[in-house]
TrEMBL record:
It catalyses: L-aspartate + L-glutamine + ATP + H2O = L-asparagine + L-glutamate + AMP + diphosphate + H(+). SUPFAM superfamilies: Adenine nucleotide alpha hydrolases-like, N-terminal nucleophile aminohydrolases (Ntn hydrolases). This is asparagine synthase (glutamine-hydrolyzing). Belongs to the asparagine synthetase family. The gene is asnB. The lineage of its organism: Bacteria, Pseudomonadati, Pseudomonadota, Alphaproteobacteria, Sphingomonadales.
């Protein structure tokens, strides 16, 4: 796992790789390397976080044995041992210099070209330069687990694992995209391929791009096999296939030459990963969870994850490391904003940083996460909400909508979260299907978001979201919503903040549920076996019944957030500093009157704008660091 840079341009040598690598050094503190082609048309660089083969044989950029191809690679190829054996069976003995997965990738490419990349199972972004043909191949894994940002300027194309690397190049233009700020206010993230700048974009996952001196020669889509499995319609067959693929996925992903630990919330997904990791025989000694005070949890109705996490830790015989969180952690936002450059403001990002930072202090370099199960196996409440509303007569939806205004914005005590969810559900009930589904993903109405800006926006949040919705085939709404979740929430939010917050402290976060072989199986299982009756993730719960306690499998769904409503009440000093009228007016992007209005409504309990205010706060901290304004 690493941070990489790559340039394809007529004169790539005039751009400083060192400056780019310096600002992403946190991604790979163990080693550094760079290469500029003899013709000056390509440059590669890497900061290395050593996970597999800790020796100098893993140094990058890495050459194949023939010295024709050179690679800069960020990630892990989990099936590298199988691919290594396959290469030797097909091509004879290979003079390996080490035991890293990167060497398997570059030697396989040297013998089989782009088709070899289609065999990879892992998390990765890579650039391979061919010195003979003078072309550069660039690929990001098909699920977008690992990041790669690009910009095309001055006749060349520039790549980096993080935006901040591109910002070091003074010749590159950057223009703030206000529509990205609006999208962040709606969703707490900027949907791919967009970034905070018009000129920068996220590289499309699963497509191998080929360049010569900055000019695009070809785009080769790969990994079609993830979606072409034979449908699995029988429940018993689905349980067996899912259990087998999940077991193999976790077993592959515990392989490392450094200590491995776990995120453990005590929910089904992280508990299943923890259970299988220990069953695999891997040297797992501990797991990490986060805890909040009773007072803070009460206002936001946070679940008591600690209780369930301890049940699993005791069952598995591992040490549970508890990270204690309190309201002072909001004050960390100015320090963390530099890693939140993608435009995300989900408070779960802070959780991830806290856990990874605590693990890194204990010498942990690899953490296994339960992310990805909800989006592929039907785990979110909105699936039930939309299915219920579709089946509800129109007059019932209208009556339900009328109750929304009668409910309080906040209800102190343990029923607060239930009140907020029902109020939101009722408010969406009478809306047309397209608007209703968009509303399920948005934390503020289009009118509220538009009013927060000093000048009209060129487009409104959700337009590309609606384009995806229009392009999906008719069918069960669960399939539709899972497709949206995978394209937006998973790709642009959950995987993004997990990568940035873990790599900020030099920790590799692995996601076994997104193992390609497991994804192929999950894609083959129909929605009717994922959401069945009142059970989300039905088929996975049935698969885990022989292995996990009933109270873990069937506990209520819990999010991975922070008690931000409670914390905002205590940290008005941050809001006063970053959202004061003089500052907002001088910046010229937002409407100071509108911001003061929602702050007043939040303070009075007249409306719940907690997520909007957190996003505004995060944006202002980031914009200050970037020196951005309306001009």
């Amino acid at each position: 796992m690493c941070g990489i840079v790559a340039i394809s341009a007529p004169d790539a040598r005039r751009f400083s790789l060192d400056a780019m690598l310096d600002v992403i050094a946190h991604r790979g503190p163990d080693d550094r390397g760079s290469h500029v082609s003899d013709g000056g048309d390509a440059a590669l660089g890497q900061n290395r976080l050593s996970i597999i083969d800790l020796s100098c044989a893993g140094h990058q950029p890495m050459w194949d044995h023939s010295r024709r191809y050179v690679i800069s690679y960020n990630g892990e190829t989990y099936n590298f041992a199988a691919l290594r054996a396959e290469l030797e069976a097909r091509h004879g003995a290979i003079p390996w210099t080490g035991s890293s997965d990167t060497e398997v990738v570059i030697e396989g490419f040297a013998r089989e070209g782009i088709p070899f990349l289609d065999k990879l199972n892992g998390i990765f972004a890579l650039a391979i330069y061919d010195t003979a043909d003078q072309v550069m191949h660039v690929l990001r894994d098909p699920l977008g687990i690992k990041p790669l940002v690009a910009t095309e300027q001055h006749g060349g194309i520039f790549f980096c694992s993080e935006i901040k690397g591109l910002l070091t190049l003074p010749a590159l233009q950057r223009t703030l995209r206000r529509e990205s700020l609006a999208e962040q206010l709606a969703f707490m993230y900027v949907p791919e391929p967009h970034t905070l700048y018009h000129e920068f974009h996220k590289v499309e996952p699963g497509v191998c791009f080929t360049y010569r001196a900055g000019k695009l020669l070809a785009r080769t889509p790969l990994f079609a096999w993830l979606n072409n499995a034979q449908p699995i319609t029988g429940e018993a067959e689905a349980i067996e296939a899912l259990r087998h693929a999940f077991t193999a996925a976790v077993d592959r992903q515990v392989v490392a030459d450094v200590p491995v630990s776990l995120f453990l919330s005590g929910g089904l997904d992280s508990s299943a990963v923890a259970d299988q990791a220990v069953r695999s025989g891997a040297s797992i000694h501990d797991a990490y969870t986060i805890a909040f005070s009773d007072a803070d949890r009460s206002l936001d109705a946070q679940s008591d994850d600690l209780h369930y996490a301890q049940i699993m830790a005791d069952r598995l015989g591992i040490d549970l490391k508890v990270i204690e969180a309190d309201s002072d952690f909001l004050s960390m936002l100015p320090d963390l904003a530099g890693f939140m450059e993608d435009g995300f403001s989900d408070p779960a990002a802070i959780n991830t940083w806290l856990i990874c930072a605590g693990a890194r202090k204990q010498g942990i370099k690899v953490m296994l996460s339960g992310q990805g199960a909800d989006e592929f196996l039907g785990g979110y409440r909105r699936y039930f909400a939309e299915r219920a509303l579709q089946r509800m007569p129109g007059f019932v939806r209208s009556a339900l909508s009328a109750t929304s205004g009668m409910l309080p914005a906040n209800l102190p005590g343990k029923f607060n979260a239930l009140n907020r969810r029902f109020k939101r559900f009722a408010n969406l009930a009478a809306q047309p299907p397209r608007d209703r589904i968009l509303g399920m993903y948005s934390w503020a109405t289009p009118a509220t978001i538009g009013g927060l800006f000093a000048a009209p926006l060129a487009s409104h949040p959700g337009e590309q979201f609606q384009a995806l919705l229009d392009g999906l085939p008719p069918g069960d709404c669960v399939d539709t919503l899972m497709a949206i979740d995978r394209q937006y929430d998973l790709l642009s939010l959950n995987l993004t903040y997990t990568d940035r917050m873990s790599m900020a402290v030099g920790v590799e976060a692995r996601v076994p549920f997104l193992d390609f072989d497991l994804v192929r199986v999950m894609n083959a299982i129909p929605a009717s076996l994922k959401v069945k009756g009142r059970q989300g993730k039905y088929i996975f719960k049935k698969a885990m019944e022989p292995q996990l306690p009933h109270e873990i499998i069937y506990r209520s769904k819990a999010g991975f957030g922070l008690p931000i409503r409670a914390w905002m009440d205590k940290r008005n000093d941050l809001l006063n500093r970053y959202l004061n009228r003089a500052r907002i007016e001088a910046q010229g992007i937002f409407n100071a009157d509108a911001i003061e209005r929602i702050r007043g409504e939040q303070a009075a309990g007249a409306a719940d704008h907690a997520n909007t205010l957190l996003t505004l706060l995060t944006q202002q901290i980031s914009l200050e660091k970037l020196g951005a304004s309306a001009t």
